[in-house]
Amino acid sequence: MRIRKFENIFIKFINESVKHFKEIGSIAPDSAICVDSIVKSVPFESAELILEYGGGSGAVTGEIIKRREPESTFICFEKNNNFYHSLRQTIKGPNIFVLHEDVFNSKNVLLSKFNIQVGSVDCIISTLPWSLLDFEELLEKEVLPLLKEDGIFIQYMYSVAFLNGFRLRPILKKYFTQIDLDFVFFNIPPTFVYTCRGNRNPNI
Ligand SMILES: C[S@@+](CC[C@H](N)C(=O)[O-])C[C@H]1O[C@@H](n2cnc3c(N)ncnc32)[C@H](O)[C@@H]1O
After folding, report:
1. Residue whose CA lies nearest to ligand 1 atom number 24
2. Is the dihedral of CA 77, 142, 23, 5 positive or negative?
3. Is 79 helix (H, G, I), strand (E, B) or coil?
4. What domains does the chain contain, in order, with CATH numbers?
5. Is the CB of residue 77 below 6 angstroms from any atom belonging to ligand 1?
6. Cys-Cys link to 59, which of 2, 29, 44, 63 (CB 3.0-4.6 A)?
7. Per the confidence metrics, is the pTM higher than 0.90?
8. CA dihedral over 84, 86, 88, 91, signed as positive or negative
9. Running along the chain, 204 residues long, what does each successive block of 10 average in pLDDT?
10. Best mutation site among 6, 128, 132 for ligand 1, i.e. most ligand atoms within 8 A of its Cβ?
11. Is any atom of ligand 1 closer than 6 Å to the C-beta of 30?
12. Rg of the chain's alpha carbons, rounded to an integer?
């Protein structure tokens, strides 16, 4: 039964990836080890507001739901139509919201739908395919303004992107004072996970 469910998620992911590779940027959902590495730095016991950018198949989303405190608010952004609808079916609970929205509009959406102001997010967890996006624009216009001063930003990068010459650390260094790196071999493909603290310019 579990294997069948995993198979379904995998096939659905590959299907979407073939159709929208530039948005999804991956061929498989994140492995359990990768998910653990992504969420292990989230301050679940104190976080009041957690965002996820790019819920996809829900691998990371499900783990956030499991670990978060019930009174915290969790909001997941997913642009892909099919992923959004399946997340809506599986991800439910008090103070949990899945939005069919573009992350490049997250600040406006949070303000208009939830009256969430800038500087009020404890943690943003992103598995967006950053090398296919205008990532610095996202950091400057959405991530930095939304985060609390001691907020945490988590972003991963596939080793394939690294081999293709993409470098994430120098970009993150421009915006955060502390970057911690983890490497997850058991993921398709193996992945670097960056946990960033110390928002250099919260007022951008
Ligand atoms: C690498 S996949 C996420 C993988 C996910 N963690 C999983 O294990 O299934 C990236 C996701 O980001 C979403 N995405 C890409 N650009 C986006 C945007 N501008 N706004 C919202 N979601 C976006 C894609 O649709 C895709 O689901």
Report:
1. 24
2. negative
3. coil
4. 32-199 (3.40.50.150)
5. yes
6. 29
7. yes
8. negative
9. 66 77 80 97 97 96 97 97 95 96 98 96 96 95 96 94 88 96 95 94 62
10. 128
11. yes
12. 16
